[in-house]
Amino acid sequence: MNDGYDEDRRDHEQAFEDFYRSHADNLINFAYRMGPTVDSKDVVQEVMTKMLARWSCIEGSPLAYAYVSVRNSVKDRIAEQRRQQPSAEFPEEQLQRALVVSMGDIDTRQRLVELWDRIDRLPERLREAVMLKVCGFDIGQSAEAMNCSRTTVSAYLSRAKQLLRESGYRAGHQSRRRHDDGDDV
Predict the structure, then answer these.
(1) What span, in angstroms and rounded, lies between the C-alpha atoms of 79 and 126?
(2) 159-172 pLDDT, tens per residue?
(3) How many other CB atoms are there within 10 angstroms of residue 135's CB atom?
(4) Within a 10 A sphere around the Cβ of 110, how many other Cβ atoms?
(5) For residues 64 and 146, is the Cβ–Cβ distance under 8 A?
(6) Which of 8, 32, 105, 147 has its CA 20 to 30 A from that of 116?
């Protein structure tokens, strides 16, 4: 009699394990990009622990559930940090969401800092689509996580790219200003 229960439990655990292996790294990366001042691995571990306990009860997409849970947990932790240190500013280095670049390449690091600053100013849904893309989610996974269609995610990414270009950012190109004497800055 217990064989059916044990088999269901093994299937349940295997399905969760497969989900974890497929998505944990992207979720950790996403949590870090959302809040570099929080422990992204801890956030995802906490979310995954809760998901395992509720795995059979999760309705709809587990990825969407995980994404929303991670996003909300990061927002809660950032709010808690601000409550605990209301007058203190977080170190600038922690707030910069630039990708890791060798210190020898200051121009690239500066462009990445500038890009993340511009991404942070995008409307929320556009910013989320960009962050998911950067964190390794494909269009289908992003659509699932954001609970919208693939076409909508593609439109968000297209609009985000357009807004970034309008703000003066060009991928792979450094904006240059000229002094009155014609010299590049």
Answers:
(1) 22
(2) 999 998 888 766 55
(3) 19
(4) 13
(5) yes
(6) 147
